[in-house]
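Two proteins were folded this term; both appear here.
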Amino acid sequence: MKRTIFEPEHDQFRDSVRAFLTKEAVPHTEKWEAQGLVDREFWSLAAAQGFVGFSAPEKFGGAGQRDFRFNAILDEEVVRTGTVGDGFSLTNDIVLPYFLDIASAEQQARWLPGIVNGDTAIAVSMSEPGTGSDLRAITSTAVREPGGWRLSGSKTFVTRGIQADLVIVAARIGESDGGGFGLFVVPDGAPGFTRGRKLDKIGRRAQDTAELFFADVRIPDTDVLGEPGKGLHYLMGNLAQERLSMAVVAVASAEYAVRLAVDYAGERKAFGQSIGSFQANRFRLAELHTRVAMARTHVDRCIEAQNSGELTAAEAAGAKFLTTELEFEALDTCLQMHGGYGYMEEYEVARRWRDARVQRIYGGTNEIMREIVGRSLGL
């Protein structure tokens, strides 16, 4: 069915994004995979085209356009062109909203221009070696002192942690300071801030992921986001868009997997006929095609709800676990139909299969997503 959520300006934006990625990203896939990160030069080129931080106000270089349909288009075209790295979704969908929604006017003037022009890479660090989806178990601490805070602790699985110039760190504050959590912005080079190893992952190898360590890092009050004690509220408030972003990627990935499988099944011969002509394969692809189409319709409705401010945390959680499970199922089916060739690195489906697996883990595991939905039902 034809999608109905986009206007002509969105279609023009999609054409621009696709042309840019095809020219500036696709040819570098193997290089970026091998070196374990995407070149910063690419990010500068993307920013110059207006694909970075476009939700920021015009006075800071953005387009002032907080229409998630543009975010979705970027995410979809990254999938469809096979572009590696999570820089667009991380920056535009996940981290930038913290700077737009809770940063002070002074902080925005100081940080947003660099983010929008590509000079400043940003990241957010929540997970710790002993905590994953349970944000309330965070043990990193920030202790009050005159004019600021002392931040100590460690974080792991930090996407873009190696290259980030600014890292938002979630940390627990003392009861004497009101309790709860705070969000602290740590710049590259801050005394006491060190980066550990670049983590060697199964998939998404071109996206640098790191361990970060904070040893009595001094954070001035001017680098605290929002109100100390409300950090968990801020994190939870932004997770709906983060999980919707993952659902957008998942559906686009599942659609691509089904098309790839159909094309291969029509070409590959076995026992004198195409493998797609076997009823088992034909029925399997028919089912996947229909389920992915239904998921696409649901996610498009979630995008509209996000734009109108109606998308709930439970709805986003449901979309995230439903689509990421379907994504991996579709890619696993596609790999299976490729047979032994699907397990070979030179075949595209192998990388896409590897890259998709983490979608069921990060942003909150799918088990936690089911828990959120279940609790929303009053159970």
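Next, the second protein.
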Amino acid sequence: MDKIAIVTDSNSGITQQQGKELGISVLPMPFYIDEELFYEDITLTQEEFYKKLAEDRDIKTSQPAPGDVIDLWEKLLNDYDKIVHIPMSSGLSSSCETAMMLAEDYDGRVQVVNNQRISVTQRQSVLDAMKLAEEGKSAEEIKEILEKEKFDTGIYIAVDTLKYLKKGGRITPAAAAIGTVLSIKPVLQIHGEKLDAFAKTRGIKMAKKKMLAAIRKELENRFPDGDFAENAYLEAAYTGDKGIAMEWAKELREEFPGMELQMDPLSLSVACHIGNGALAVAWTHKI
């Protein structure tokens, strides 16, 4: 049986310390802030990121340098037979495509998983990969299973401020101005590759209600027997305020009793496009 290393990036929400505890490697995502290079969870903490975001600093996302990816793979292949590499969704970053291209030179020893995951759902893919490896699945089988499941998930994100959607060109300045006056809280969705609009709501209370209804509908359609806890994980994420996030977690547990719930900060690569105060909920199919 091959000895398999699991690799992901910090978009999974898995910290460097957690990676060490789990026995996986976590590539830190790079950010350029006022043209200065920072690495998530190494030279850039969550608190520092949101402070710089609030200061209107110029923040640009990037992808791990090919040389850093190769260096990590080469190091791991000294001790492991194969690698399963789980990057963030190919629809949200070119890091997946880059990794797939680099893996072509490794004669199958590196299997790059393109299963369109981000944040808490990407984290679950990493845990699934570890479990499958422990069960004796090959690197190729793990890749096949994870990619087969890629659309068996959904994420909804309620955005608290329109500032960053306007800044990124996703909405016009006029729409942002009107939306702010009317306390419009857009709900975004991720199903597969892209971050798309789902609904416009008045206030965060209605946004949360809309997300709860959307998740319930998806779970009922996917698992008509109603046994959600047996078949799916419930996941939540947030940007910034942990206190508000804990309230959200409480609401989710009341709405979906018995389901396992994981709460993590939302990926900074997503956070820089939606800003502080966002709340998210997701589900993923249990493999």
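The longest helix spans residues 204-222. The chain is about 40% helix and 25% strand. These notes refer to the second protein only.
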